[in-house]
């Protein structure tokens, strides 16, 4: 680590948060300019919805969503119209603040007139989405998948998807949302940073059990139940590629303004965290994209009130060490020389 920068050029620069951590004129940087801004909830929603308007069947992996406060009247009108045409439709919506992370500020509502919604959106822009009420359950629990995707270059577009990811579980058995259980975050929200505070959270030394498991262990279970794993993977790959295609035009604008063509400059690569939810029928749905997925391979354990220590997490280690190792192999500048 070079806290004050280093004078000699490096092959690979590994930044903490964003492309603009330092002035770099050569080598490869593990961040794209503009990526952090582009995958926030509102810009991501805008980019995917633009593509949904153009190619509705290709982009049907993203839940119906509205941007607040600007589309609040549209949200109210569309929900009313859909309810009028289908009185049996009893939707639930999930509200996600634009800049929120780790489950911060997310809540569920049953109706656009919900007082929490009308009170908070003026001060805090957010995306409101139709909540997926029929997720695939394992051990009666809802879970999501964190997949690691390496965007190796924008031109030509090169994308690699890690073969294994993490499955992050809720800590209370799932029930479809009702007015009574809407606020039960441990049942509805899969965020690790929320569920870790639940008394039911299980830190496991095995990759097949506990509140965080490998995605491959879930695939094994699905396969043993007769699920078509090849089709599932192909749907996930398609979702990842189409999402990145939706972001590419804006990313190129950011890239060209920071690294103009023909001028010497670094090239970029970036590991993204894709959060995906499987529906009961095994259709993958995109929840969000994370520009700075956590690469920690340990978790904090409370020894006594207020006293924590870091304990290795075998599941994180198994998945993340491979992600970083293979990323460095793929961007290895020595490869060309060999």
TrEMBL record:
Keyword Cytoplasm: no
GO cellular component: ciliary basal body
SUPFAM superfamilies associated with the record: Glutathione synthetase ATP-binding domain-like (SSF56059)
Keywords, alphabetical: ATP-binding, Ligase, Nucleotide-binding
GO terms under biological process: microtubule cytoskeleton organization
Pfam families: TTL
InterPro entries per record: TTL/TTLL_fam (IPR004344)
The protein, known as: Tubulin polyglutamylase TTLL11
Organism annotation: Merops nubicus (Northern carmine bee-eater)
